[in-house]
Design a protein that fits this description.
Length: 255
């Protein structure tokens, strides 16, 4: 899964937006050494149409560096109707231990920050930061069942106001037929959306191959001051080994 995932500010909790990831609960993995990744998602609810985009790169076997943005259109009845966007989200992920089938769980740590760039309601009202630990347990030689757990904190500061919340999430991915998987999760205090409360999300994920992944999800808030409305979304994850092949060609020509 996408690990991920764009940050939007506390202001966006008033229009109930989510992060770029198909699932909020992240997994303990990185994109891979010299691999590039693009995640792009469309998400719809009664408040807005949103397109989220995140690019990531693996400079080493254990590190993943990512940057993202969100843009879209708000519904006519909202306060900030019209086109809006927010940039940028900056995130780093470090893999402490890789998960393997029927072995000890994988562990990764994530830290990120967002800046108040953009226009309209999606623009963050201040500077923010977040961090969390991701744990993944794998069962079955073909990764038949994956269970993910996250715990962390998210903080935003603006106009002399500090807002810090604890975040957590538990999710699972279960293989059914071929590359088709069933997904489910419950989370609270999304690190990208402070104060979003407890919500659930479910859907399907299809791995076309090692480089293409498609997702279809629906979700809704369960509790919290800013309970999220029903939403649905579709997305794609694309991985490229262009940088790895380029590096190998360069080394071959030198030798």
């Amino acid at each position: 899964m996408r690990t991920f995932l764009l940050h939007i500010s506390l202001l966006l909790t008033t229009i109930n937006c989510l992060a770029v990831r198909p699932f909020i609960t992240d997994d303990a993995r990185v994109v891979g050494w010299r691999l590039g990744q693009l995640e792009s998602w469309l998400r719809f609810d009664k408040h807005a149409w949103q397109n989220w985009n995140m690019i990531a790169y693996g400079p080493t076997k254990r590190w993943e560096l990512a940057a993202g943005l969100v843009h879209g259109l708000e519904a006519p009845q909202t306060e900030h109707q019209g086109y809006t966007y927010a940039i940028p989200l900056l995130q780093a992920k470090f893999l402490i231990h890789e998960y393997k089938p029927n072995k000890a769980p994988g562990v990764a740590v994530v830290a990120g920050s967002f800046l108040p760039g953009g226009q309209g309601a999606f623009k963050a009202p201040g500077y923010g930061a977040f961090g969390y630990v991701a744990v993944t347990q794998c069962f079955g030689k073909d990764e038949n069942v994956l269970i993910h757990g996250n715990i962390g904190v998210s903080h935003i500061q603006y106009t002399n106001v500090d807002h810090t919340v604890m975040t957590w999430g538990v999710g699972t991915q279960i293989r059914t037929v071929g590359g088709l998987h069933v997904l489910g999760e419950i989370f609270s205090g999304d690190p990208y959306v402070p104060g979003s409360g407890i919500s659930y999300q479910a859907g399907f994920r299809h791995f076309v191959n090692n480089f293409v992944q498609l997702d279809l999800t629906v979700g809704q808030g369960i509790s919290g001051q800013n309970k999220l409305p029903f939403w649905y979304g579709v997305g794609v994850r694309l991985v490229t080994d262009y940088f790895d092949k380029r590096h190998k060609r360069k080394n071959k020509s030198v030798n």
